[in-house]
Amino acid sequence: MTTTTIDLPDLAKQTTEQLAAGAPARVGFRTESRLTPGTNTAVDITAGRHEFTIDEPPALGGEDTGANPVEHLLAALSACQVITVRVWAAKLGLTVDTVAVDAHGTLDLRGFFGVDPAVRAGFQDIELDLTLTGPETEEAYAELIRVVEAQCPVLDNLTAGVPVTTRAHVAATA
Question: Is 10 contained in some domain?
């Protein structure tokens, strides 16, 4: 395990001050996803300097060479909650000793396979169990969690409806 040398409260304060003073605020993120040759559902992903594989379990045609897309969605949400807790605790001057988020989502496969048009293809619901420890009052942590619910970018993406544009490029193969 690595120990960070970044002072999170100072970083949060400096970044907030710079943004308030008009520093550029929009940042872009990018991933590239390619079907792994010779597989049904394995996908090689590049995200910045990171590479990983997403796949489906055998029951859905995959070989289980990586977590599936909806598991990555849950992981992204729970990781973002953990990070948002740390950043906002630093901004609010609160001490958080440990933080953990367990995520659970229920998917109805009738939606994905088009069996019932009334059933959505995505999760029917997502539940998060957030556990944190530290010396602050229960009221202080309740306020922190309220702020986290409002400021978590991945939660916002899931609940606020982000416009998604798909540009399809189809090329015939010989």
Answer: no
Residue 91's contacts (CB-CB under 8 Å, 6 or more residues apart) are 9, 12, 13, 16
Q: Considering its fold, how many domains does the chain have in total?
A: 2
Range of the domain at 138: 68-161
Tens of pLDDT, residues 5-33: 678 888 888 888 898 899 888 899 999 99
- Report which DSSP code applies to 172: -
Phi, psi of 133 (to 5 degrees): -130, 155
Model pLDDT for residues 131-146, shown as the tens digit of each residue: 999 999 999 999 999 9
User: Are 86 and 40 members of one domain?
Assistant: no
State how far the Cα of 106 lies from the Cα of 11, in Å rounded to an integer.
Answer: 37
Q: Of 5, 39, 66, which residue is a domain's last?
A: 66
- 114 is a domain residue: yes
Distances in Å between the alpha carbon of 87 and those of 26, 41, 116, 144? 18, 36, 42, 10
